[in-house]
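User: Hi! I'm a student and our assignment asks us to look at how structure tokens line up with a sequence. Could you show me two examples?

Assistant: Happy to help. In each example below, the sequence comes first and the structure tokens follow. Example one:
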Amino acid sequence: MKKLKKILAAFTASVISAVSLCSTFSANALANKETFRVYVDVPSNSGVADIGLNLRYTPSVTDICTYSKGNVDTDFRLSVVMDDGAYVGVDIWSYAESDMVSPGTICVLAMTAPSSTKNLFDIVDVNIARLTNIAGRNLPTSRLRISNVMVGDVNQDGKVNSEDSTLLSKYLSGSVSLSGDAIRAADTDCDFCVSDADLIRLNKYLNGEIRYFDR
């Protein structure tokens, strides 16, 4: 493979609402696939100020649809990487003016992947290129959590179906509790909370009114 070349300048995501990259990336990523989201999080008292991530993938298998800045105050930038005319990854950089103390989400990337995919990181390579505090000291990778969920898979069984809708309805009525990745899978509109709007969107997906959660 030839040396990867960045073809788009890094740009700042200054709002939390998702920015679509579908017009940029190949349409073949939107055929017969599910929506996954990659979350980049910092825990409490992480001490992190400077983050650099590299994501690489095969565009015929998976691709990015949208990205959104998270709920922490950082200067977030994303640049697209290509090789021989194909988009093969992104580089993500996040800068804070001081070492972070509060927990939160740096960014969220929505990607499509085959329905048979159980863990997106089986087909997407993620590398932490830089993780330092404000003084430039390298920090352990445990100060950063990078995870992925299949959107709509509320019961975490690897598929999205009516069982997920039933479970989400019970959660909204207060009869069951959800936590961790289940909550993130239930957040179908990616607004960092779970509400009736997420159930409506999930049911639209199940009824075929929408095909992808993030486009």
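Example two works the same way, sequence first and then tokens:
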Amino acid sequence: MTGKRLFQSVAEQISGLINEGAFPPGTRLPGERELAERLGVSRVTIREAEIALQAVGRLDIKTGSGVYVSEKQLEERSALPAASAFEVTEARLLVESEAAALAAHNISDEAIERLSQLVEQMRTGDEAAANEADEQFHRTIAESSNNSAMVHTVKSLWRMREEIPAVKTTYEAVCVHDADSRTAEHEAIFFALRDRDPSRARNAMREHFHRLIEAMLDATERMALEEVQERASKSRERFAASAKIG
């Protein structure tokens, strides 16, 4: 699996089942064998995924008892604001532009190399790999700012992007249509950071988010039009069916 190890994908599947309510907080997960059969992977992969989910607080592994869905996460998840995709992106523009400027002063050669690899990963044509690279690219920049408050804020904004359903849907609609623009914009950010140029890094990040907001407006209009067309189609079908009966 390109850009992502199998256990990470399985961890996302288990996390998704938890989010959907298949495994409520406090309940015990099915055994490794049952989960392995259900998800079509080995028991070793299930074990690795569960360990990864325990590390981020989604699961509690109790020796001799089993694996349980953490009860703490309900409070954490409910703490997310009812923010729109535009609000999240506006906040990201403000925070991540300054994170890029800070990173230009502090970034290491290792982080520069990592960003280069992530830009190349975005070119593969593999949507899942590109999305993973996108997140890691932004997190690497935040970490390179050497500001723990900035890192926490960027991670929180990414959590909103992924865990607020309406925000996630809007981002997914945009990412389907803007792969080339997204890669070019990340490359511009990378070049500015490679040259240790704070002003260029800040501006490149701003341009990325300004274009993203414009793409969101287009995507929102497109989704609204598709919804109207779907409703109209259903109305025609009902009308046709009524006419035949009459």
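Here is something you could point out in your write-up. Residues 105 and 199 are 10 Å apart (CA to CA).
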